[in-house]
């Protein structure tokens, strides 16, 4: 069969969602931001809530998210996206509200907003992109930088005695009573992208049912900041990021399911 | 058994040449072109179009969403 016979509108199985604008994404080649943007927009398209969704863009690489997502968006001050999202959701409870934040935004300057928003249990979705580095400003060390990981401000690797421990903020918010659904996903392989999409769908469904806050961490690469090719960065992420940031659901429907967290709380799982 | 035949269309000007699609293809169809696009990136294209099954893996993993996938059932 000739390719021309296959490429016909009736045979179409996958195309870029129209909820992403025609602007070219400003991200580096291979960056997980683009994939995550697309996954969120696909879920919003499938649920048919384009006109009822308000997104909050952070400060960081994804500061221009409002240029790429064809929905209503607000750009918040650094780290304050959950606070802005709270305000919008409380004034307009019937709208779908989500914040999209990086690790420098959510886990550093915005830690307080994040924790209090999760503890209050606002009915919003928080999407958290964790690449262990401040990508936009040139690869400085972030709270999520791994022990021994090199960055432009820790050129010999992160030293715990001097720089402190990396922060697992997702495990932290999973223990707060306000959160309903907490999970950690990735977007480096087709299977991982499909799982992330399911998680995003579940988060928006939770918001529809007013169940509480859904928190999705997406472990992503930063190939420019890590100074690797996209393929090598994804491999490095699998080998180094995933052992410290294990993928999977931590809390589903307000019940902790992560074995690590249950053992911390003294609950026997085996 | 009916065989699936697929084809992809890559938006050459938007492709940033990250090569994630190359590794995600289960039938090893995609390669990077020798020439470059307007931005200077080597873009993806179908080197072995006969092997494509239209599984959409490449399109799902593409960070810039430049891949469109078509599929037909071949008797």
How many strands, which pairing sense, and closed or not: the largest β-sheet of chain B? 2 strands, antiparallel
Query: Main beta sheet of chain A, described?
Result: 8 strands, mixed
Spatial arrangement of strands, main beta sheet of chain B: 1-4
Structural class of chain A: alpha/beta
3D architecture notes:
The complex is a heterodimer of chains A (270) and B (75). Chain A has 270 residues and is of the alpha/beta class. Chain A is built from twelve helices and nine strands. Chain A has a single domain (3-20, 27-264), classed as Rossmann fold (3-Layer(aba) Sandwich), CATH 3.40.50.970. In chain A, strands 3-2-4-5-7-6-8-9 form an eight-stranded mixed beta sheet, with helices on both faces. Chain A is globular and about 60 Å long. Chain A starts with a helix and ends in a 6-residue tail after the last helix. Chain B is mainly beta. Chain A binds chain B through residues 1, 3, 5-8, 11-17, 20, 24-25, 27-35, 38, 187-190, 193-194, 229-231, 234, and chain B through 5-7, 9, 14, 16-20, 22-24, 41, 46, 49, 54, 56-72, 74.
Briefly summarize what is shown:
With 270 residues, chain A is an alpha/beta fold. Chain A has one domain: Rossmann fold. Chain A has helices at 3-6, 32-47, 65-68, 81-91, 103-109, 111-120, 160-163, 169-174, 190-208, 223-226, 230-244, 259-264; strands spanning 12-14, 53-57, 72-75, 96-102, 125-130, 179-186, 213-219, 248-252, 255-256.
Write the topology of this structure.
The complex is a heterodimer of chains A (270) and B (75).
Chain A: H1 3-6, E1 12-14, H2 32-47, E2 53-57, H3 65-68, E3 72-75, H4 81-91, E4 96-102, H5 103-109, H6 111-120, E5 125-130, H7 160-163, H8 169-174, E6 179-186, H9 190-208, E7 213-219, H10 223-226, H11 230-244, E8 248-252, E9 255-256, H12 259-264
Parallel strand pairs in A: 2-3, 2-4, 4-5, 5-7, 6-7
Antiparallel strand pairs in A: 6-8, 8-9
Helix pairs in contact in A: 2-9, 5-6
Chain B: E1 3-10, H1 20-24, E2 30-36, E3 42-46, H2 57-61, E4 67-74
């Amino acid at each position: 069969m000739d390719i021309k016979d296959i490429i016909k509108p009736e045979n179409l199985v996958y195309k870029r969602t129209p909820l992403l604008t025609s602007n070219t994404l400003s991200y580096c080649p291979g960056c997980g931001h683009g994939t995550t943007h697309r996954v969120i927009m696909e879920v919003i398209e499938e649920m048919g809530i384009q006109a009822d969704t308000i997104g909050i863009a952070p400060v960081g690489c994804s500061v221009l998210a409002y240029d790429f997502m064809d929905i209503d968006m607000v750009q918040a001050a650094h780290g304050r996206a959950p606070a802005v999202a709270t305000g919008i959701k409380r004034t307009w409870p019937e709208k779908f509200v989500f914040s999209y934040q990086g690790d420098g935004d959510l886990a550093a300057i915005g830690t307080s907003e994040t924790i209090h928003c999760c503890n209050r249990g606002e009915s919003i979705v928080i999407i958290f992109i964790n690449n262990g580095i401040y990508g936009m400003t040139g690869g400085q060390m972030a709270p999520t930088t791994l022990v021994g990981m090199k960055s432009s401000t820790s050129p010999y690797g992160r030293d715990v005695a001097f720089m402190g421990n990396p922060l697992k903020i997702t495990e932290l918010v999973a223990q707060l009573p306000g959160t309903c659904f907490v999970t950690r996903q990735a977007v480096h392989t087709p299977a991982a992208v499909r799982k992330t999409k399911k998680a995003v769908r579940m988060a928006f469904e939770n918001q529809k049912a007013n169940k509480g806050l859904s928190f999705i961490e997406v472990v992503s690469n930063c190939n420019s900041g890590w100074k690797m090719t996209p393929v090598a960065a994804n491999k490095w992420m699998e080998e180094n990021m995933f052992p410290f940031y294990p993928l999977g659901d931590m809390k589903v429907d307000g019940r902790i399911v992560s074995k690590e967290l249950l053992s911390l709380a003294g609950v026997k799982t085996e | 058994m009916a065989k699936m035949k697929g084809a992809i269309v890559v938006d050459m000007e938007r492709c940033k040449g990250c090569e994630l699609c190359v590794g995600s293809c289960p039938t090893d169809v995609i390669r990077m072109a020798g020439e470059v696009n307007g931005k200077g990136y080597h873009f993806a294209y179908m080197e072995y179009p006969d092997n494509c099954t239209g599984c959409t893996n490449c399109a799902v993993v593409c960070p810039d969403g430049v891949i469109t996938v078509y599929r037909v059932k071949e008797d």
